[in-house]
User: Which sequence fits this backbone?
């Protein structure tokens, strides 16, 4: 048995006579694993592929979604509408901006905090727990709290007035220029714990001798962190970058619950816009078209994820 | 990472760490504080008096347990099949699963809505459970297959020589080795199903079918502008989550970290 190649499968020991592979394994043997993967395949085809196929059809319709009303086929008019729709382009732009900013801030805070937590700190476990709690809490649970905090009469304005910045107070969520930063803040609050845990784990893997050598050469703590630790955590950063991109495309709960995509579409994302077009405007064909656009972007993100993973597996 | 010599720099570093966690702590404190405004604990009494609290927790528990069970069963079977058995066009099937890895909930929203409204699947917990499971399975299969690939085939060959069939090998040889990956699958699925908001909001309109994430908005619609009551509802849904996390802290942190890097 020890000579059998590692990838050889269970049910088919290598034929001693060396007959051609096709002959030695009848169709039954080649299908033997199929029942095992069937439940997962059926689930995913039935609830993801089938809906996506349906989307393709629905995106050519002018339809309010009720079976009793007859849909009108309008060809690619929905797509033409989408490419000329400023709210769609805004939602896309918001996603890009949101991704770049939340990813950078989370990385900066998470990485720095991981460095600090690898030093001698009292109450380190309590600190780590506090940063990680938001990761497990539902955005839907925290949304009312943030609506309160950033309200005209909320704690944030109270804080500003008490530190002499009373001139900055405003209804943060009702102001189109500040609503998006608040949505970003909540996202950073929610996900930095995960960034931190990943960097913290990566830093535990580093060879202490390298760090020690740098210190002997007179490098400061900040210098070590920036020039040695940071480059060595490159793999973690790359994984987080892709994860953040996919997360940005999935954004729904926070903008929907905190600002409803408003004011005046100022915090509209693709997810919230699809829901708005579907539930408020009852324009199912157009919602399906937007969903197709989101799907294309998400699959592109997935391809990025795979190439990224396989590259890090190789090197 | 930070070398500290002497008292001053040690205090400085401690101060830096404290400053960094304050923004993370503050919203939690503000939430609890806000929920106690006005009537104080009376706000909590008001939420419990609606009688819906046990209902939403029961429903959330059903949704999470069923989603976890479906995801776990599908994942383990599929990962074993992909990793250890012969399947015609194996990699094609695998890529078909992986392609669904990044599909956001919002993409399948419209079709699900149409199906639900035309076949009267509203207010069935299954209408939330099945899509949640389907969205989770591509990810868990990927993670689990990587894990199964690491289990040496020789272990199974031995059982096979003794006359065990695929099912017996799976059940008594492979499954007992999969504890670490089980923790990852459960943590990931628990968080995504318990915290899910969009699908329940869309599918579960009847009061008796709602889940915990809908509790604050239920309260908003019932008692407009009762901010303190809404916050009390939020705290009531948050406390069990925090307790479960604290009880299984190690599994949550490792599980989420391991999953994120795959």
Assistant:
């Amino acid at each position: 048995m020890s000579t059998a190649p590692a990838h050889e499968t269970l049910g088919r020991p290598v034929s001693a006579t060396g007959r051609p592979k096709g002959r030695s394994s009848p169709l039954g043997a080649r299908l033997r694993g199929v029942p095992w993967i069937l439940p997962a395949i059926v689930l995913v085809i039935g609830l993801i592929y089938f809906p996506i196929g349906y989307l393709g059809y629905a995106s050519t319709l002018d339809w309010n979604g009720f079976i009793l009303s007859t849909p009108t086929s309008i060809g690619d008019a929905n797509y033409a509408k989408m490419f000329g729709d400023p709210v769609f382009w805004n939602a896309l732009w918001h996603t890009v901006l949101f991704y770049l900013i939340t990813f950078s801030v989370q990385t900066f805070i998470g990485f720095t905090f991981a460095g600090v937590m690898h030093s001698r700190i009292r109450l380190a476990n309590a600190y780590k727990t506090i940063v990680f709690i938001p990761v497990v809490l539902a955005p839907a649970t925290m949304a009312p709290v943030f609506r309160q905090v950033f309200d005209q009469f909320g704690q944030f304005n109270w804080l500003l007035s008490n530190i002499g910045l009373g001139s900055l107070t405003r209804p943060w969520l009702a102001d189109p220029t500040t609503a998006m930063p608040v949505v970003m803040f909540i996202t950073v609050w929610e996900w930095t714990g995960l960034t931190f845990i990943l960097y913290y784990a990566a830093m535990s893997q580093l060879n202490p001798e390298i760090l020690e050598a740098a210190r002997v050469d007179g490098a400061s703590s900040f210098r070590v962190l920036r020039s040695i630790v940071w480059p060595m955590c490159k793999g973690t950063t790359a994984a987080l970058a892709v994860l953040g991109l996919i997360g940005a495309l999935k954004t729904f709960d926070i903008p929907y619950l905190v600002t409803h995509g408003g004011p005046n579409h100022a915090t509209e994302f693709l997810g919230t816009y699809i829901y708005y077009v579907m539930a408020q405007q009852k324009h199912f064909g157009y919602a399906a078209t937007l969903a197709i656009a989101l799907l294309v972007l998400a699959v592109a993100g997935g391809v990025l994820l795979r190439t990224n993973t396989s590259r890090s597996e190789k090197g | 990472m930070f070398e500290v010599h002497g008292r001053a720099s040690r205090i400085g570093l401690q101060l830096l760490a404290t400053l960094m966690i304050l923004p993370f702590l503050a919203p939690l404190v503000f939430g609890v504080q806000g929920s106690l405004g006005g009537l104080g604990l009376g706000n909590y009494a008001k939420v419990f008096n609606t009688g819906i609290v046990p209902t939403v927790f029961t429903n959330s528990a059903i949704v999470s347990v069923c989603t976890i069970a479906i995801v776990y069963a599908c994942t383990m079977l599929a990962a074993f099949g992909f990793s250890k058995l012969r399947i015609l066009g194996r990699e094609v099937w695998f890529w078909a699963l992986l392609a669904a890895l990044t599909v956001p909930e919002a993409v399948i929203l419209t079709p699900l809505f149409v199906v639900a409204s035309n076949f009267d699947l509203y207010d069935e917990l299954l209408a939330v459970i099945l899509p949640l499971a389907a969205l989770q399975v591509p990810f868990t299969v990927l993670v689990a297959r990587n894990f199964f690939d690491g289990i040496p085939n020789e272990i199974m060959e031995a059982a096979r020589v003794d006359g065990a069939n695929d099912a017996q090998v799976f059940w008594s040889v492979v499954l007992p080795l999969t504890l670490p990956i089980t923790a990852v699958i459960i943590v990931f699925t628990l968080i995504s199903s318990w915290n899910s908001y969009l699908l329940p909001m869309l599918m579960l309109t009847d009061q008796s079918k709602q889940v915990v994430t809908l509790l604050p908005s239920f309260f908003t619609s019932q008692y407009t502008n009762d901010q303190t009551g809404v916050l009390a509802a939020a705290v009531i849904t948050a406390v069990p989550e925090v307790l479960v996390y604290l009880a299984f802290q190690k599994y949550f942190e490792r599980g989420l970290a391991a999953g994120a890097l795959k």
In short: Chain B touches chain A through 105 residues (CB under 8 Å). Residues 25-261 of chain B form a domain with the MetI-like fold fold (CATH 1.10.3720.10). The mean pLDDT of chain B is 87.
